Amino acid sequence: MKLCASTTRLCVSTTSVCASDVRTFVSDSGVRRALRRERLVIDRRARERRDIALWRRLRIERALAHRREVYGRWAWAVATPEGRAEFVLYSDRMARLHRIRDIGEDRRDNGLVVRVDRVIALENARHANVIAVIISKRPL
Predict the structure, then answer these.
(1) How far apart are CA 31 and CA 47, in angstroms?
(2) Which end of the chain is least crowded, N or C, by CB within 10 Å?
(3) Does the structure show a pLDDT above 90 at 12?
């Protein structure tokens, strides 16, 4: 994943050749929106994690709210096999990254937190690119 030199968009090259016809682009605003949502999730998680009992009690509630949000926005994509596979992969990766970030915060390891934040941003961009491909295949 890299920033395309000719535009200000993130792209994933499907080959080592740098040609616009072999890339899937996601606009900066889409990535910024995903990063803003991610920041809100991280802040909410930090508040809830301070109280272990509350954290455990709200776990099911958080999972259901996330599922409702995904199905409400992407029901047609989740209904396809490749869309379902992408959302499962994305949710698994994000859960692991959030857990690693939580451990870094508990240990007050700012270097780890910064690295995980970078990986989260890359994962959000990767996911946005894959969803853009799935959207392009959506029947009208």
Answers:
(1) 25
(2) C
(3) no
Residue 55, pLDDT score: 79
Calculate the alpha carbon distances from 47 to 75, 84, 122 in Å. 30, 30, 24
Domain count, the chain: 1
Angle, helix 110-136 to helix 81-106, in steps of 10 degrees? 170
For residue range 59-79, list pLDDT tens digits in order.
888 888 888 888 888 888 888
Helices 110-136 and 28-49 meet at what angle, rounded to 10?
130
**Confidence class of residue 123 from pLDDT cuts 50, 70 and 90?**
very high
CA atoms within 13 A on the CB side of 121: 16
Domain span at residue 125 reads 2-136
Distance CA 95, CA 132 (A): 22
Tokens 């990254």, residue located: 97
